[in-house]
Amino acid sequence: MDRTVIPGVSGYAPTPPAARMENHGSHMVKIAMVGGQDVFARSGSMVAYEGFVQYEANPPAVRQAASQWLTGEGAPLMKCSGDGLLYLADYGADVVCLNLDNEALSVNGTNLLAFDAHLQWGVERVKGLAKFSGQGMFNVGISGTGWVALTSRGTPVVVDCGRGEDETYVDPDALVAWSSGLKMKGKRSMKAGALIGRGSGEAYQIAFSGRGFVVVQPSEDSTDRLRVRG
Fold first, then answer.
1. DSSP, residue by residue, the chain
2. Domains in the chain: boundaries
3. In the CATH hierarchy, which fold is given to the domain comprising 17-229?
4. Any signal peptide, and if so, which residues (predicted)?
5. Structure confidence by residue, pLDDT tens digits, 64-117
């Protein structure tokens, strides 16, 4: 039986995987699933898969951390295992894939899409920022060697803080992730508060210095930040 080929469809077809995690377009991550190499992914992020992939909602490792994951939504991760190709997305957000090489990363929990299950991780309080924001701030710390997929509301910029001696200043509500080894400090804007930034953090910024990188998204939404009342 002849198959009708719709013009233009071939340009969107999946390509053979070149890495464990990679982009398929700018809004989707493609993960090469291999037996024994499980992935933790944001619950509800699966959009398609090929082969045999199983899902475990609220696995024990997530339940253990969920008591600290103060989103009010319970455990936000599922465990994916099997063989095949797994496609994940988050409502059209941009996706960034990072390959950690014995590195540590601090990620805003709402920007965390997926990561290799063998990586060390846990919910952590971001120290030293509560006095500037008036609230505590919780992130997900991930370390080791493996892949991590992040989301960004718009095309992000990855700033290499080790390229010069100057500090890098970021609006807290635009932060996606940063290298855990970076030094951080808050800075208040005494004046011109209406001119600096566009989110709730417009009167203060976070200064980063040292060797590492910061991932910044163009959309500032303070409701996305994992926080608790101070």
1. -PPPPPTTGGGGS----SSSEEESSSS-EEEEEBTTB-EEEETT-EEEEEEEEEEEES-HHHHHHHTT-TTSS---EEEEEEEEEEEE-STT-EEEEEEEEEEEEEE-GGGEEEEETTSEEEEEE-TT-HHHHSEEEEEEEEEEEEEEEEEESSS-EEEEGGGSSS-EEE-GGGEEEEETTSEEEEEE-SS-TTTS-SSTTTTEEEEEESSSEEEE-S---GGGS-EEE-
2. 17-229
3. Double-stranded beta-helix (3.60.160)
4. none
5. 666 655 544 344 899 999 999 999 999 999 999 999 999 999 998 889 999 999
